[in-house]
Amino acid sequence: MKAVKNLRIKLFADGANIAEMRKAYREGIVKGFTTNPTLMKKNGVTDYQAFARTVLSEITDLPVSFEVFSDEFAEMEREARIISGWGPNVYVKIPVTNTRGESSAPLIRKLASDGLALNVTAVLTLEQVETVAGALPPGAKSIVSVFAGRIADTGRDPVPYMSEAARILKSLPGAELLWASSREILNILQAEQCGCHIITVTSDILKKMSMLGKDLTALSLDTVRMFYSDARSAGYSLPV
Q1: Does an H or E element contain 40, and which?
Q2: What pLDDT is attached to residue 1?
Q3: Strand 118-123 relative to strand 142-146: parallel, antiparallel, unpaired?
Q4: Which residues of 218-238 are buried (b: 16+ CB within 10 A; e: fewer)?
Q5: Which of 1, 31, 126, 210 has its CA 20 to 30 A from that of 58?
Q6: How far, in Å, CA of 130 to CA of 29, rounded?
Q7: pTM of the predicted structure, to 2 decimals
Q8: Angle, nearest 10°, between helix axes 158-169 and 126-135?
Q9: Which long-range contacts (CB under 8 A, 24 or more apart) does 15-20 make?
Q10: What is the pLDDT of residues 67-109, one digit of tens each?
């Protein structure tokens, strides 16, 4: 099984905890960062721009994605242009539709044509991948984030979806396919085999990266030792 150093796919850290982002950046395993309003709210971020500026003052040489938060396309465009101006390594996340289900394709086409680096997010269907691919100019610097983990949450195997998404985007050299909402280490290998360029990983998954390729016999012994140690430290005993 592959070791971390042999992976072709790029790992992007997904979150909005600055301390965890700093740690991931220092360790050098990840090749980029993504966040979103939900993660920011969860981590207590109240000033969007101040948070972004802090992140970008420390992470200057890797891509970082920040999302627009309006539901109206004209306002999305205004926000996107502001966010894009925060740094040369910024990707602007545009949801594939607004809350009314209206396609963001015209806005994606306009912003990409103007040279903004985009991360099209919340993509879950192959029809949406086709629509996004049709909106992106050839060579446009972009990421298409397909939420494979959420596809799996519905009981569907995400691998065929991601393989087909990779085929759809193959004709766009500037577009990178991202496996979003990963749940476990196995997803990293699945994403690479599907032809994805990037996978987002949480801090919990990053903590498990030392498990990649670990010998199963050794892992079994570690598990037995954990159970034994925890039973002793808890003081468990049975009457004689």
Answers
A1: helix 37-42
A2: 56
A3: parallel
A4: eeeeeeeeeeeeeeeeeeeee
A5: 210
A6: 31
A7: 0.95
A8: 20
A9: 15/39, 15/43, 15/202, 15/203, 16/40, 16/42, 16/43, 16/45, 16/51, 17/43, 17/203, 18/51, 18/54, 18/55, 20/203
A10: 999 999 999 999 999 999 999 999 999 999 999 999 999 999 9
Which pLDDT score, from 0 to 100, does residue 2 have? 67
Q: Is 92 exposed, middle or buried (0-12, 13-18, 19+ CB in 10 A)?
A: buried
pLDDT for 123 equals 98
Cα(209)–Cα(29) distance, integer angstroms: 9
Helix (H) or strand (E) holding 56: helix 48-58
Question: Which domains, from first to last, does the chain contain?
Answer: 4-212 (3.20.20.70)
Amino acid, res. 21: M
User: What is the identity of the amino acid at 96?
Assistant: V
Please list the active-site residues.
93
